[in-house]
Amino acid sequence: MPFWGESAFQNFSSGMMSSLETLHDPCYGLAGCYFGSCFFGEIWSVFFKSNAILSLDSLSLEVIWSCLPMVILASVAFPSLLLLSKQETLGKPLFTLKMISNQWSWASEYDHHNSYDHLLDFDEIEVLSNLETPVFLPSGKVVRILLSSSDVLHSLGLPSLGVKLDSVPGRINSTIIDGSSSVSIGSCYELCGTGHSAMPVSFILF
């Protein structure tokens, strides 16, 4: 569950989010070390007036500044690709959840069973955009989510499940989740108009 004033990730409720957090922490530390070394290097050169080393040729320096970024990028890219592969090989989905994003609400459909929010007028859909109509999914089961948009760009974000999926008109994007028992609260992550801030969504895994 999200809490006011949080500065870290929400408690994860899926194996994928746990893996993402495991990848994030060393990458964040690596970026902090790089920024810190550059920042204190600049402070040292400005306040302690160290003289620059004049050199027309330095093979070792060229090797370092060519190879070091490659090593850093490879150390980030390799586990990221492993996570992408893992996400696509979670197993055969139990069923498919189809979602359509609208200004400013979400419509859901479990396989071939239509949800009732397609039948409501705009005022009632505004009420539905509150967390009164959550999506119910079985916990511990693999579920595929298909997402598209009926109007403008949207983005489905569920931090505790590790889901951030763009919703594009005329295109169907998909992802797979396998969350544990939890209540996952998310929102639209794409600026989609005046009602963007009032477009929450909740998933209850039971």
UniProtKB/TrEMBL annotation:
Q: Which reaction does it catalyse?
A: 4 Fe(II)-[cytochrome c] + O2 + 8 H(+)(in) = 4 Fe(III)-[cytochrome c] + 2 H2O + 4 H(+)(out)
Entry keywords, A to Z: Copper, Electron transport, Magnesium, Membrane, Metal-binding, Mitochondrion, Mitochondrion inner membrane, Respiratory chain, Translocase, Transmembrane, Transmembrane helix, Transport
Q: Which InterPro entries match?
A: CcO_II, CcO_II-like_C, Copper_CuA, Cupredoxin, Cyt_c_oxidase_su2_TM_dom, Cyt_c_oxidase_su2_TM_sf
- Bound how, and how many: what does the cofactor note say? Binds a copper A center.
Tell me the membrane topology, using the record's own terms: Multi-pass membrane protein
**Where does the source fall among the domains of life?**
Eukaryota
Any one biological process term the GO annotation gives: ATP synthesis coupled electron transport
GO CC term, one of those recorded: mitochondrial inner membrane
Domain Cytochrome oxidase subunit II transmembrane region profile, first and last residues per copy? 1-91
**Listed transmembrane segments:** 63-84
SUPFAM superfamilies in the cross-refs: Cupredoxins (SSF49503), Cytochrome c oxidase subunit II-like, transmembrane region (SSF81464)
GO molecular function (one) = copper ion binding
Tell me its cofactors. Cu cation
Q: Which residues form the Cytochrome oxidase subunit II copper A binding domain?
A: 92-206
- What PROSITE patterns is this protein classified in? COX2, COX2_CUA, COX2_TM
Q: Where in the cell is it found?
A: Mitochondrion inner membrane
- Describe its partners and assembly state: Component of the cytochrome c oxidase (complex IV, CIV), a multisubunit enzyme composed of a catalytic core of 3 subunits and several supernumerary subunits. The complex exists as a monomer or a dimer and forms supercomplexes (SCs) in the inner mitochondrial membrane with ubiquinol-cytochrome c oxidoreductase (cytochrome b-c1 complex, complex III, CIII).
Homology family: Belongs to the cytochrome c oxidase subunit 2 family.
Entry function: Component of the cytochrome c oxidase, the last enzyme in the mitochondrial electron transport chain which drives oxidative phosphorylation. The respiratory chain contains 3 multisubunit complexes succinate dehydrogenase (complex II, CII), ubiquinol-cytochrome c oxidoreductase (cytochrome b-c1 complex, complex III, CIII) and cytochrome c oxidase (complex IV, CIV), that cooperate to transfer electrons derived from NADH and succinate to molecular oxygen, creating an electrochemical gradient over the inner membrane that drives transmembrane transport and the ATP synthase.
In Swiss-Prot or TrEMBL terms, this protein is called Cytochrome c oxidase subunit 2
State the gene name recorded for this protein: COII
